Amino acid sequence: NMDSTLHYIHNDSDLSTNSSFSPEEERKSKVQDVVPQALLDQYLSMTDPSRAQTVDTEIAKHCAYSLPGVALTLGRQNWHCLKDTYETLASDMQWKVRRTLAFSIHELAVILGDQLTAGDLVPVFNGFLKDLDEVRIGVLKHLHDFLKLLHLDKRREYLYQLQEFLVTDNSRNWRFRAELAEQLILLLDLYSARDIYDYLRPIAFSLCADKVSSVRWISYKLVGEMVKKLYMASTSTFVTDLMNELVEKFCRCRKWSGRQTFVFICQTISEDDCLPMDQFA
Fold this sequence. Notes:
This is PP4R1 phosphatase. Helices cover 69% and strands 0% of the residues. It is mainly α and 281 residues long.
């Protein structure tokens, strides 16, 4: 019976983890009864660096690609079998391996649940945030998907790091900034009005002045959604302050491009019904 088997695999029991294993306990910790043990042992052995170099340099990348599927099959109660392998892959010297994990860490978080995610995935996630752009983009593309799974206090810690996404290894990598603007639109639902005003507003204004038009167009949408979110908040002082700053920063800008930005933001606010028309006026 497939349904009952899946239910058995994915029940939440036995989530305890212990990192101080003896060698014998370490061997036992890799034992499970969902798939043939020899099959799992073969998979785990493929991440051995010496084996990867002698057999196939791409083998670690394939292991990283398959890991969420293996974790789903084993269930979260058997995560202890994969934890060491995951950490080995996350620190692999090949950026392609780390990039593969960065693109799937949000899926793994869903499989493991909030308790294991906070303990075992958040440190890896933090490492990816400081990695090469090729790795960081994997985290950035699913930033909202990952952060929404964290508790509010843990989620707020990342507000201080969002600014770092404006800095890239290559300044011409404008798609990175465009993706940041897209993710910030989604992140508006995860944070309070004060957090939006204090942390997301400065980033949005910076993106509105980007040199690449594609980034600016997404940023106008971001500012419009920000106005809408702050207007709907009970404390209306934030939306008033935001609109005053839009007038001061863009409408009265000495450069024509700044004044043009103001017109485009007004267009977005009007077309997307971000404000009642009397408030807009």
